[in-house]
Amino acid sequence: xxxxxxxxxxxxxxxxxxxxxAPSVPIKPDESGKLQYLALGDSYTIGQSVPADDRxxxxxxxxxxxxGKATATPQIVARTGWTTRNLLDALEQNPxxxxxxxxxxxxxxxxxxxxRNMEEYRVEFSQLLSKAMGYAGGxxxxxxxxxxxxxxxxxxxxxxxxxxAGEIDRFNAIAQEECVKKKVLFIDITGISRKALGxxxxxxxxxxxxxxxxxxxxxxxxxxxxxxxx
Length: 230
Known about the structure:
This protein is an alpha/beta fold. The protein has helices at about 5-10, 45, 55-65, 85-95, 110-115, 120-135, 160-180, 190-195, 210-225; strands at about 35-40, 75-80, 100-105, 145, 185. About 45% of the residues lie in helices and about 10% in strands.
């Protein structure tokens, strides 16, 4: 792997750490009468390297509004570099307040990148599902999970794509199993992410994350499945 690619990986995937409180998009006072949506995750949820309007939770909220389900600006708890452990710690330190009409979870790429144990991921992912259900008023039916996208199709993954893809698939299998146990909706967007291998417009300028165009493809898949949740 080229040195500049390695530098990008170290900066964008592993350096998120626990540096202060989780960045979030707060609920605006004039949106209090709208449906409330909480999005939990990592760089893909916060939209690393794309404008705020191109974050997939923001796109989803906009589509729901067009469909007659007025949805407040999503409250986002996510940071580039976060593993399941980092997200759990952030939620313990600064838990979201109130009850949400829907909660999404997309987490695990940094567990894979850092070589974290898969059984550790299973335990921590299950804990995050329970927390998400709590934020949704105890309703599993108001929670949905997106699968981990495959960053191996980006330029940063060149030379190691098969290995990355295999591990991503195994982490996703665990996430899906835990969702089935708790009766939480699991939505597979990994295959969509792999379209970026032949389409550079689906990759962000940092050559590691995905573009707003990719996130809109995810929402096209997610929207009809989650619309009944709101």
